[in-house]
Design goal:
204 residues, 0% helix, little secondary structure
Length: 204
């Protein structure tokens, strides 16, 4: 069977829960408020698509292309986004609690006020992304690339930042209480007003 081609399709509010959409082409498609709970979208092309307020809880998006995708307010809790390309994607106020984003490419992504509680971002590329006001409580950011990132006002309490690159990052008034910064690179970072209570391994 050939790959599914739904590029530029109008799929607003569609119910695709548990659908198999592996390698499907959904680029530029309108999936506003679509239900994609537990859908398998691994290696799918969702570049420039509209997925604002879509439900992607426990969806498999591993290896998918979501470059420049609109994911404002989308529900991605427990979703698998490992190795996903989310560069320049808009994830403002998106829900990503316990999502797996290991080795995901989030270069210049907008995650302003996104919720990433207990998310796994091991080796994720977040350089130049906007995470201001984001909630990253107990998130695993081991060896993540966070250089030059905006984390002002973000909640990183209890986060694992071992070996993370935070050089030049803006951590103004960020909550880093109880975070593990062992071997993290904080050269040139702005930590003014940050809560550094009980921080582990701080090395500036």
């Amino acid at each position: 069977m050939g790959e599914l081609h739904l590029e530029k399709g109008n799929l607003r509010g569609v119910n695709l829960s548990e659908a198999k959409l592996i390698r499907a082409n959904l680029s530029y498609a309108d999936l506003y408020e679509a239900n994609l709970t537990r859908a398998n979208l691994s290696y799918a092309n969702l570049g420039w698509a509209i997925l604002s307020y879509a439900i992607l809880i426990k969806a498999n998006l591993s290896g998918a292309l979501l470059k420049n995708t609109n994911l404002i307010g989308a529900s991605l809790n427990n979703a698998n986004l490992s190795g996903t390309v989310l560069s320049e994607a808009v994830l403002v106020k998106a829900k990503l609690s316990e999502a797996i984003l290991s080795e995901a490419d989030l270069f210049k992504a907008n995650l302003n006020e996104a919720i990433l509680t207990e998310a796994v971002l091991i080796k994720a590329k977040l350089n130049e992304a906007d995470l201001s006001g984001a909630i990253l409580r107990e998130a695993d950011l081991m060896k993540a690339k966070l250089n030059g990132i905006n984390l002002s006002g973000a909640d990183l309490s209890g986060a694992i930042l071992i070996g993370a690159d935070l050089s030049g990052a803006n951590l103004y008034k960020a909550n880093l209480s109880g975070a593990n910064l062992y071997k993290a690179n904080l050269s040139g970072a702005n930590l003014s007003g940050a809560d550094l209570t009980n921080v582990i391994g701080l090395n500036i």
